[in-house]
Amino acid sequence: MHCTKLVYDMPLSSVPEGRDCVVNNLSAGRGLARRLAELGFLLGTKLKVNRSEGGAMIVSINGQRFALSRGIAKKIGVKHF
Amino acid sequence: MDSDTRLKMAFSLIVGGLYLVFGLVQVLGSFGMFASLIDTLNIDDNLFGGFVLLLIGVVYLFVVRSIKRDSIEGSAFLFTGIFLSLLYASINLVILGATLLSALLEGESLGVFQGITPIVYLGLLSLIGLYIWRSTFSFSRLSKAGV
Amino acid sequence: MINENITLALAGNPNVGKTTLFNSLTGARQHVGNWPGVTVEKKIGTASHKGRDLTIVDLPGTYSLSAYSLDEIVTRDYILKGRPDSVIHIVDASNLERNLYLTIQLLELDVNVVVALNMYDIVKSRGDSIDVDMLSKNLGLPVVETVASTGEGVDDLIDAALEAPPMERFKPFYGEDLEKRISAVMDILRNDDKVAPRFPLRWLAIKVLEEDKEVLKLLEGNELEPRLRAHMDKGGENTELELVNRRYENVRCIMSESCRLSENGLDPSDMLDKVVTNKYLGIPIFLAMMWAAFELTFKAAEPFTIMIDKFFNWLIVWISNNIAHEQLASLLGDGIVGGVGSVLVFVPNIFILFLIISLLEDSGYLARAAFVMDKVMSRIGLHGKSFIPLLIGFGCSVPAIMACRSIEDSRDRLITILSTPFITCGARFPVYVLFAGAFFVGAEGTVVFSMYLLSMLMAILSVILLSKFVVKGEKSPFILELPPYRMPTMRSAVLHMWDRGKMYIKKAGTIIFMGAIIIWVLASFPQGVEYGSADSLVGMMGKVLEPLIRPLGFDWKIAVALTLGFVAKEIVVGSLGTLYGTGENDDLLRDQLRADPNMTALTSVGVMVFTLIYVPCLATVAIIRKETNSIRWTLFSIAYSMSLAWVITFVIYRVGLLLGY
Q1: Which candidate, C389, C419, C433, places its Cα nearest to that of C569?
Q2: pLDDT tens digit string along C202-257?
Q3: Which of A15, B64, C49, C538 ranks highest by number of CB atoms within 10 Å?
Q4: C244, A38: Cβ pair inside 8 Å?
Q5: Chain B residues with beta carbon closer than 8 angstroms to that of C20
Q6: Are A68 and A55 in contact (CB under 8 A)?
Q7: DSSP state of C385
């Protein structure tokens, strides 16, 4: 069931399981932002949230799966449909 | 609900139920209960082994829980249940082999039958499941590790 | 020009098969060390290909060549300064976009590059396809398909590295604005004769705009610096991110012409993950896996242990029957075979443990386990990634501490390194078996298991204490790549098992061998004294140390055994055998222990606990020093485990006495 409202700039950590979203900005320090970007978390890239639980999230980006801590997920801003 | 889903549910209910029951008996048996049942069914006296049986049973029951709602998720639990039960059955067979080898080396008598515990023989049921659904769950889709 | 030595460097992302390729090229002809000044492993090996001698350098796995991590700096420096004849860039075909990101950066370093397209089988199983010739043309680099785990394509790969004709290489385009700025900076840099001539000019300009830490360090105080600063300030932080974005655009452009991705439904990895990382099932599944690993390690190793044990016993008897010279016989039999044998007896257990860990790693499960455990571990202040070294520690602390290299954050790494020794390693196990068997007949299993629980408790406490009070810093962010599940190959699992296991054997062959001889000497002299009695050198040593451990209820024999345990824990049981005069016979030793009025069930608990906590063996101390690069922390580790051991044992003993045991 999808929302038809387009939400701008939610932190990734708030996106529920199973949803698709798009990376909108990275409010992280230099090193982290660069690292994320290099791993593929680029502005405009589509991301899917596979699992979201207390401490961490698992997301798929470009077919690759990553586990992220909630702290990092909070710093990734996404557009969510 | 199509016939394949019904089959999966029935299969998981039966196999899961068996694992749960045997697991329970094994766990309680390690504390001394059900002695006669333990003898007839050749149940191990291992507490943690019992927990593993319970775990596999639970995974199978998760199939029943989720397959009506989302058949892909249900199949995932089935796949994992089959995988885990076969894994533990093989591990126990390896241990059985090693124990026999040790006994041989020490010149003791061989008690093969003792090693065929529920963890091993219930695995046969999962083998049946693997055969039934062999086209969906083909392991060949997992490629070889290149690292 | 035949037979001049050619240097090839292997580069690529982590987990793409670099090490497998390195191992298959160099076999045993490798040498492992460290890159100067840093704790990054340097592996160099030699190989020969069609009559030519090759030197192969295995560079660390990196995603990029920025200045943010030691691995990347080391890799970059080597390529720029070491100038290998060719870089073999191993690319994971199933992850092409991210892997090609590194390729772009290698192209800018102006070095010869050959691409090994590895793991192509995964691509096929997903239904995707890659046009290798097109890819090669677009990149302007030779591209060779390889399957590192079987060795396919490796010959063609080396051929390409040695002989490929030059092609027109891809030149990344960064967009109008950035390109203008790059040219401007290049113009400024052309005037410099100190730094610029050493590096490719365009690369240097790009690094300046990125405000690359290492490059800026080189330019500090340079007369051109203010002009360069002016250009850097124009874009600020966004320049760096934009460069990253543009690089990916270049990659996508290359890929769009040569790759075809198919739409795919659920693959087996997704299915397994749904269950394995499930809220309720995740941890039970993990515990079940750990239990299975444990069971296998002990039970499956048994027949081999028995065989080795029988062999050594036979050897001892043979020696005493066939060697006339009594002293020599004693040296060989009691000393060497007894000492080293007691260590080698555990080789099957350790190897099986390492084999299991390798299988779990290769299959991809270990990453999920790290993820599942992360929730639990973060409550005590650690990463999920720290749990793998702790797991290996159950076998031997040396490879466990080496495994800490995969923890990127230096604070977490230090805490894990300092806490790993508390995990009771294989060497301490015989001590528990001995004393549990002597004083707790019938409940041996429970006693030993409690020791294992205690060690885990100690490790957890150690982590909590260290992170709260001793090691400063914030907990670092957690990003873990979850590779797709794979069917582990026996070949690679055995290779990894051997990698870690051989450290254990090396330890036996060297330190313990010498330790065994030293003990023998101490126990046999002065001449004519009864082997290992109170009159021998070792006995005298014990008497001197006795007052230190009297409050713990220990006597001089225990003092000696524990002191010798400094060298290697495996020696403890052996030296007790020597001191009580029972040699190799553990049953006899148990009887002697029981008969000793100084030894009670309570003191035996004390001995076991002390052994668990106190100083790790010499090999471990050496490796702590190596991995932390700091004598201060090494000494700290020794002091803190010693004092904890003493205090805790003291408390247990005194409280036990009070309670009437």
Answers
A1: C433
A2: 999 999 888 888 888 888 888 888 888 887 777 666 788 888 888 887 887 787 76
A3: C538
A4: yes
A5: 146-147
A6: no
A7: G
Q: What 3-state DSSP class applies to A28?
A: coil
Domain end call among C123, C138, C163: C163
Same structural domain for residues C16 and C106?
yes
In this structure, which topology does domain A7-80 adopt according to CATH? SH3 type barrels. (2.30.30)
**Domain ranges across chain B:** 3-134
Determine the 3-state secondary structure of C355 from DSSP.
helix
Q: Which of C62, C125, C124 is nearest to C91 (CA)?
A: C62
Whether residue C17 is found in the same domain as residue C102: yes
A34 to C244: CB separation less than 8 angstroms, yes or no:
yes
Residue C627 lies in a domain: no
Q: Among C119, C140, C163, where does a domain finish?
A: C163
- Any long-range contacts for C623-629 (C-beta under 8 Å, 24+ apart)? C623/C397, C623/C398, C623/C401, C623/C402, C624/C401, C624/C417, C624/C418, C624/C421, C626/C34, C626/C39, C627/C39, C627/C401, C627/C402, C627/C404, C627/C405, C627/C417, C628/C39, C628/C414, C628/C417, C629/C38, C629/C39
ipTM of the complex in this document? 0.87
Written as six digits, the tokens of C96 are 């092409």
Q: Is C3 left (phi over 0), alpha (psi -120 to 50) or beta?
A: left
pLDDT, averaged across chain B: 80
Q: B80, C492: Cβ pair inside 8 Å?
A: no
Mind telling me how many Å the CA of A18 is from chain C's nearest CA?
12
Q: What is the span of the domain harbouring residue C220?
A: 176-236
Q: What is the mean pLDDT of chain C?
A: 81
Residues of A in contact with C241 (CB under 8 A): 26, 33-34, 37, 43
